[in-house]
Amino acid sequence: xxxxxxxxxxxxxxxxxxxxxxxxxxxxxxxxxxxxxxxxxxxxxxxxxxxxxxxxxxxxxxxxxxxxxxxxxxxxxxxxxxxxxxxxxxxxxxxxxxxxxxxxxxxxxxxxxxxxxxxxxxxxxxxxxxxxxxxxxxxxxxxxxxxxxxxxxxxxxxxxxxxxxxxxxxxxxxxxxxxxxxxxxxxxxxxxxxxxxxxxxxxxxxxxxxxxxxxxxxxxxxxxxxxxxxxxxxxxxxxxxxxxxxxxxxxxxxxxxxxxxxxxxx
Length: 266
Hints:
Rna Polymerase Sigma Factor, Chain: A; Butyryl-CoA Dehydrogenase, subunit A, domain 3; 2 domains; about 75% helix
């Protein structure tokens, strides 16, 4: 007959405490290990923040500064390191890029308010472009749009450059009121099928819209976003002035914004 040894209360309490301490030590170790990995990721990808901000310097207007965008991007990187999950079906570099870019866009959005009269003029220009595009199948020329607005072509370029941030932000999101893609990815381990479909469709439509730009505008977009040349470098490629590249870039973004608006409305 086996005699079961009954543990005394102090013995049981001691063993429970030991197990509790082991669990706490294990959690602390895992936490330190995770924090160490996060810190390594932040250090490794911090240069990406500066690289993305350098792509957005064209959109900076007072009181916003380069340092403000770097700070916002750094916060996006820290959140990316904290929230990243391999089940996102994207490598960390891709995920971090989206989160950093999203944080920078948010910062730009907060400082992209335009005077009411300019907002009205931009809406009018957008509506005119939509009507002409729907009627003719192609975007109006600069001269045609300026004529409809009863302003000079130079005034048109000035208006489009002032509106550039607004168009830049709207193109990055699937709708004017939607959150950046990075926030959507961070909201859950995987995107809902309907949301994923919407994002894929947006990318397809954007690619189609880029193909419909005139040759010079399309080249500027490809060199600026795909080849990651600066506007100064693009100016050297085309042997034109940097301000002219800026005008072409602003006009291209406006045309893309109109195309995506046409797609959403349709």
